Structures are given as structure tokens and as C-alpha cells.
């Protein structure tokens, strides 16, 4: 007894029998065909799977790319926005700084102007004071000069009056000397009492006070 072929299992068992060559060939062909078909199907499936995988991968890649692009775009937009915001902030800051500077400048200018005005006012006041002082001094000087002039004039007038009175007294003495000793004596006493008398008194008053007469027979007055 020999081994027997048991179909597709490929096992040789006890009880060998020669297989039918035609049947065997046919079976082999069928098997081969089936195997080929299976292989083809498998290949096709594999290919399909691969294609699907590839497609999926491609889609995923595309999606990823799109997502990346979107993210990039978003990032760019965000960056742009941030930049814009920063720029705006910077601009605002600059503007604020400029405004502050301008304000400071204006304040400084105002202060300077005020100071200048104050200085000018002070100067004007000083000038006015000086002018006033000068005027006052001038006025005082003028007044003093006037007073001095007046005093001088008065002195001169007094001197002239005194000289006139002395002349008149001398004349009166001369006139009375013709009358004799008594007349001369009365003239001397008149001269002695003259110093206490006022300048306005005339010669007639003097002679009347003394009791003598100014009028003489020789025609002198």
C-alpha cells in the first residue's frame, strides 16, 4: 500500500493510489487558475488599497497643507494685525509724545513770555521810578534854586533898602545940622534907635518920633 493524495491538503496518506492524470491536470489547471485569480484579486485589492491609501495620504497631505496654509495665513494675518496694532500704538505714543513736547514747548514759551513781560514791566517800573526820582530831584533843585534866588533877591533888596535908609538918614542929619547942636543930637539919637525899627518907616515918621521937624527954612526936604 502506498500513500494517497488527499485533495488540496497536500498530504500523503496510507493506501497509495495513482491519481487520474487528466483529472489531475484539470484539477491542477483549475487550481492554478483559481490561485491566479486569487492572486490577481489580491493584487487588485492590494492595488486598490494602495491607491486608496495613496489617495487618503494625498488627501491628508492636501488637508494638512491646506490646514498649514490656513494656519500660516492666520498667523500672517495675526502678525499683520499685531504689527498694525503695534504701529498704531507706536503712532499713538509718538503723537502723545509730540503733543506732550508741544505742550511743554508752549508752556516754556508762555513762561518765557511771562518772564519777559515781568522783566519789561520791572524795567518800565524802574525807569518810571528813576524818571520820577529825577523829576523830583530836578524839582527840588529848581525849588532850591528859586528859594536861593528869592533869598538873594530879598537880601539884595534889604541891602538896597538899608543903603537907601542910611542915605536918607545921612541926608536928614545933614539937614538938621544947619539948625544947630540940638538938631545934630536928635539925629544921632535917631540913628541909634534906627536898628530896632522896621525898614518900611519913612523919614517923616522918624523925625516925628524924635519930636523934631524935617522941614527947614532953607528949602530942603
Automatic annotation (TrEMBL):
Region span, Disordered: 1-221
Cellular component aspect of the GO annotation: nucleosome
Molecular functions per Gene Ontology: DNA binding; structural constituent of chromatin
Biased composition regions of type Polar residues, renumbered to the chain: 206-221
Biological process annotations from GO: nucleosome assembly
Coiled-coil ranges (or none): none
Basic residues: bias regions: 23-164
The protein, known as: Uncharacterized protein
Organism per entry: Knipowitschia caucasica (Caucasian dwarf goby)
Classification lineage: Eukaryota, Metazoa, Chordata, Craniata, Vertebrata
Amino acid at each position: 500500500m502506498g500513500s494517497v493524495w488527499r485533495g488540496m491538503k497536500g498530504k500523503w496518506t496510507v493506501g497509495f493510489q495513482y491519481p487520474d492524470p487528466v483529472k489531475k491536470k484539470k484539477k491542477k489547471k483549475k487550481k492554478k487558475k483559481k490561485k491566479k485569480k486569487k492572486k490577481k484579486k489580491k493584487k487588485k485589492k492590494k492595488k486598490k488599497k494602495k491607491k486608496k491609501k495613496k489617495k487618503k495620504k494625498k488627501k491628508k497631505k492636501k488637508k494638512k497643507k491646506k490646514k498649514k496654509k490656513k494656519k500660516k495665513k492666520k498667523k500672517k494675518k495675526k502678525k499683520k494685525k499685531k504689527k498694525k496694532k503695534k504701529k498704531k500704538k507706536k503712532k499713538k505714543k509718538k503723537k502723545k509724545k509730540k503733543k506732550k513736547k508741544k505742550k511743554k514747548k508752549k508752556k516754556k514759551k508762555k513762561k518765557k513770555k511771562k518772564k519777559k513781560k515781568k522783566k519789561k514791566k520791572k524795567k518800565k517800573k524802574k525807569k518810571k521810578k528813576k524818571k520820577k526820582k529825577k523829576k523830583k530831584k530836578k524839582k527840588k533843585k529848581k525849588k532850591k534854586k528859586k528859594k536861593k534866588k528869592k533869598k538873594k533877591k530879598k537880601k539884595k533888596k534889604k541891602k538896597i533898602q538899608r543903603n537907601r535908609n542910611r542915605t536918607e538918614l545921612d541926608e536928614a542929619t545933614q539937614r538938621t545940622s544947619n539948625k544947630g547942636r540940638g538938631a545934630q543930637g536928635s539925629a544921632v539919637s535917631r540913628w541909634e534907635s534906627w536898628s530896632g525899627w522896621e525898614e518900611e518907616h519913612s523919614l517923616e515918621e522918624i523925625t516925628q518920633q524924635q519930636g523934631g521937624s524935617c522941614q527947614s527954612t532953607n528949602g530942603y526936604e
